[in-house]
Design brief:
Length: 294
């Protein structure tokens, strides 16, 4: 791992520390990546490791200064019967996943884990952000109404259009449910309403959530998906796949639906990114529905 083998050694040297003075566990590195950096690259990880090293260097320096002060006043304290010493800092300082907040403060990012059970109208999508990949949950509820579609969750214009396309597609896939569509409204929500969202890659996720809500079929909870969708149900390629797959792994997802045209992008990725993921390539939405609906 580049973080363990190279970045830690580099930051130890940069901050005047030796390996016998500071030990950073693999669990701490993983926690830095998932909770403090949220990126596919290593620049932010290196800065975060540097912050841990600077904190450790300060701890060691303060301990040395305290030891010197206690040493210089030991004679006076002995004479007065006060010779209580502060416990010395034990080296190496060990940084673990558990005590990492002592060095970096509270987590900046929180995992959005896979749902514990299959559910109706709830589907996990994958998104690309400026700080890396993320999972994106899409929820759909139906209620008596006149066929209106309500969208919430700070969705951008492209995402709103994707939702309209998804509803039209689901109506065409379920002609026998025409009366249901006329007598019900649909509310599609993407949680974390304070965070703006946009882009076409949630098209398949919205389509699956709407289809599930109309048919009452639960969606497999440990599956995530990404892909633009057309009115005729074709699944189009998307970007940011590396970051999206990393986000899926962090969330405990084990199966990902990916557009077939993105296969060359997956082939270029390191094995450690795709390891443990069942990647299913799809050309049409009905392929997704057959695999993920229970």
């Amino acid at each position: 791992h580049i973080g363990k083998d190279y970045l830690v050694s580099k930051q130890l040297q940069k901050n005047g520390l030796k390996k016998k003075q500071l030990s950073i566990s693999d669990a701490a590195i993983k926690e830095m990546i998932s909770g403090y950096t949220k990126e596919a690259g290593v620049r932010e990880l290196e800065r975060t490791i540097g912050k841990v090293c600077r904190k450790a260097a300060r701890m060691i320096l303060e301990d040395m200064e305290r030891t010197d002060e206690e040493g210089s006043s030991s004679d006076k304290n002995t004479a007065s019967g006060k010779n209580k010493k502060t416990e010395a800092l034990k080296l190496p300082i060990r940084v673990t996943g558990r005590n990492l907040p002592d060095f970096l403060g509270k987590r900046k990012y929180h995992d959005n884990p896979a749902n514990k059970k299959d559910d109706v109208g709830i589907v996990r999508g994958l998104a690309w952000t400026e700080v890396g990949g993320d999972t994106l949950e899409v929820e759909v509820n139906t209620m008596p109404g006149e066929g209106d579609l309500k969208l919430t969750g700070q969705l951008g214009d492209v995402m709103k259009e994707s939702a309209q396309i998804a509803l039209s597609l689901v109506r065409s896939l379920l002609p026998d449910e025409n009366e249901f569509f006329k007598t019900h409204d649909f509310h599609l929500h993407v949680p974390e309403g304070a965070v703006p969202k946009d882009g076409p890659s949630a098209g398949v996720t919205m389509t699956t959530a709407l289809y599930s809500a109309v048919t009452g079929s639960p969606v497999r909870s440990h599956t995530a998906m990404t892909g633009e969708v057309t009115l005729r149900g074709r699944v189009l390629p998307i970007g940011g796949l590396k970051e999206k797959l990393l986000a899926a792994k962090q969330a405990g997802i084990d199966q990902v639906m990916v557009p077939s045209e993105n296969r060359p992008d997956v082939d270029e990725l390191e094995d450690e990114i795709t390891e443990g993921l069942e990647i299913c390539y799809v050309d049409k939405v009905d392929q997704i529905l057959k695999q993920v609906l229970q």
